[in-house]
Amino acid sequence: MPVTDPTATGTTWSVRDGLATFDEPAVLLRNALDTVFTRWATEAGARQQSYPPLLRTEDLRSLDYFRNFPHLGSPVTRIRPDRLAGLAGAPSGAGALPAAELADATHMLPSAACYGCFLHLTGTSADTPVLITTAAQCFRNEDHHDGLRRLWGFTMREIVCVGSAEAVRTHLDRHRERILAFGTALGLTLDRQPATDPFFEKDGTRSVMQVLAPVKEEYLHTDGTAVASTNNHRNFFGERRAIGHAAAGVHRLRRLRPGTLGARPGRPLRRRPGRRAPRGAAGRGTLVTRLAARLGLELPLLQAGMGAVAGPGLCAEVSRAGAGGTLALYREAPGRAARLVREVAAATGRPFGVNVVPEVTGQGCLDQLRAVLPELPRGCFVTSFGLPDTDAARAVRAAGHPLVVQVGTPADADTALGRGAAVLVLQGTEAGGHLLGRLPVDLLLAAVRARHPQAVLAVAGGIATGKDLAEAVARGADGAMAGTLFVPAAESAAHPKFKRRVVEAVADDTLITSLFDIGWPNRPHRVLRNPLTGTSERAPATFLATTRVDGRAYPVPRYSAAAPSEATTGRIEEMAMYCGRSCTRVTAPHPAAVTVARVRLEYERAHRPPRGSRQLHRIQER
C-alpha cells in the first residue's frame, strides 16, 4: 500500500513503515502517562484485565468487523507445511512471502483493545455496571503512515463501562472532562470532534451512522494528532455477544507522542560499584541514597509540605510516582487533619509524609500529631518545618515514624539530631517561602556535613530538575526537597493565578521580605514581587480576599502570611506567592506524576562530577 512517510525520526524515537522504536526517555514518558491513565480507571472502580494478543476471525465476524473495518485488518497465519522446504531453499534476498505459501488466516491482530473485553464478557450479565481497563498492542492496516501521528502498530489503553445507558453516559461525561483538563495541564489545546479518520470504512454502514449519530469522538491537538477518543457503542456489543447490559462506553487513551513534554536524552549517571537499591527503595535503576533507603522512596526527592498548595491530591500523586509526597497540616484543626491523612492513605499505598509547623501552631502542633499519628500508615514519615519541641519529637518517634526536620542553621541541625531526627532538610536562602537561616544551601550543606558526616541530609532551595538533584547528591547531600517545582502541578491546591505566575517567573522576580507577617511574624520569606512589595509605605491591613475551608469563609487581610489557594477569591495578586529562585527552570504546569518522571529521568542520566571534586557550585547563580 502507498506510504507517504515510510521513515521518520525524532529525538528519542524512530519510525519505519508505521512501526515505532522508542529510546529510554520516550519509554519512561509513555510509562508515566500510562500510570496516570491506569489510576483514572482505578478511581472509576475499573478492574485491570489482560486478553489474548490474537482474535479469532469467527468472533470478529459476529461483530460485523469485516463489514465495517476490513481495511484495518492484519491477518495472522502460518506457513503451509508443504511449502516449508521450498522456503528454506529460497535466496537470502527474497522479499515478501507470497500468499500461496500461507495457510488460511484464522486469527487477526486486534485493531482496538476493547475487542478482547467484549468477547470475554460474552454470555454474562450483571445488575450493576461493569468497569474494566485493559491495554493492548493494536494494529491498523491503514493506507498511509505519518510519523507518530498515524502508525500501523501502537499501544492503546481503554477504560470500558458496560451497563445501562445512564451509567455509560455518566462514565463518558466524566472522562470527557478529564481528558480536556489533562490536556490543559500538559499545555495542550485539545478540540473534541466527531471522528473522521479511516477507522470507519468509507462506504460502510458504521461510517453512515457516524455522520448521523456519532458514536466516536476524538480529542485533537492543534496539529491534528488524535490523542484520545470516547466511544458509545450503545447496545451493539450487548446484542451481538449476549451481554446482559444495554449499552457500552469506552474511553480510549492513546499514548501521547514522546517529545510533547520535552524529554531529552542525556548522559548516564555513574554508579558506585556494588550498590543496588533495595526493593521498593530507590529502585528502577536510580542511584541509591540514604534518604531514599531511610524513607522507602524510589527517588531521593521530597515534595515540600506547603500550606495552600500541598493538599491530599498532590501528596498522593507524588507518593504514587515514587517520590516523597507530603501533606501540609499548617493550621488545620486536629479532626480535619486526621481526615486529610485518611484521604491520602486511601489514595496511595506508598510512603508519604505529613508536615507540621511548630513555630506557627505552638501547642497545637502536638494536638495535630496526636490526631494524625494513629491514622498515618506504617512506613510513612513526619516532617517538621523548624524545630519541634521535645514532646512532639518524642511522640513521632514513639509512633514508629521517621522524623524529618527542616533547619536553616548548623546550630539547629545539631539540636534536631539531638531530638531524634532521622533526616535533616537543610534550607538555603534560594528557597521559596519562610526562611530558617541566612546561608546559601551549598555553604549550609558543607557546614553541616563537616559536623555530622553520617547524618542523612537533604537540601532545599534551587531544586527544579533531575540535574539539580544529581548535583546536590554529588556535593554530599543524600537527596533534596522541592517546593516551587510542585506549585504549578495539576494536583496542586494553589490558586490558578499563583500557578501561572510561578511558571512565568524567573529568579529575579523573587525577593526576600518580611512584609507578609500577619499570622507568621518575625520570619523573612521569599515571594514573587507584587504591587505590595513595590511600595515603600505599608497600606492598611484591611481584608482583601476570602478563603473557604469545609464550606466556611475566612477573611484574609492584606499582608497575611496565607498563600492563595484554589478556594481563595478576591485580590489574589496582592497575596503572598511563595516562590524560590528555581522558578527559572519551572516552565510548564505538568501533572505531578509527569514532573516526577521527568526529574527521575534527568537524575538517572545526569553526569556526576568526578569523585573528590571540592568545587562549590551555587545553585542560585545558574
Describe this structure in words.
The protein folds into 2 domains: 7-79 and 102-254, Bira Bifunctional Protein, Domain 2 (BirA Bifunctional Protein, domain 2); 290-611, Aldolase class I (TIM Barrel), CATH 3.20.20. Helices cover 29% and strands 20% of the residues. It contains 19 helices and 27 strands. It has an 8-stranded parallel beta sheet. A 7-stranded mixed beta sheet has the order 4-8-9-13-12-11-10. Strands 1-2-3 form a 3-stranded antiparallel beta sheet. A hairpin with a 2-residue loop joins strand 25 (543-549) and strand 26. Mean pLDDT is 85; it is low at 197-213, 254-286 and 608-622.
SSE blueprint and pairings:
Elements: E1 7-9, E2 13-16, E3 19-22, H1 24-44, E4 47-48, E5 55-56, H2 57-62, H3 65-68, E6 75-76, H4 84-88, E7 107-108, H5 114-120, E8 130-139, E9 153-163, H6 165-185, E10 191-194, H7 205-212, E11 216-220, E12 226-234, H8 236-240, E13 247-254, H9 290-295, E14 301-303, H10 312-320, E15 326-328, H11 334-347, E16 353-356, H12 358-361, H13 364-372, E17 381-385, H14 390-398, E18 403-407, H15 410-418, E19 423-427, E20 433-434, H16 441-451, E21 457-460, H17 466-474, E22 479-482, H18 496-504, E23 510-513, E24 525-528, E25 543-549, E26 552-557, E27 568-570, H19 592-605
Parallel strand pairs: 4-8, 14-22, 15-16, 16-17, 17-18, 18-19, 19-21, 21-22
Antiparallel strand pairs: 1-2, 2-3, 5-7, 6-7, 8-9, 9-13, 10-11, 11-12, 12-13, 20-24, 23-24, 25-26, 25-27
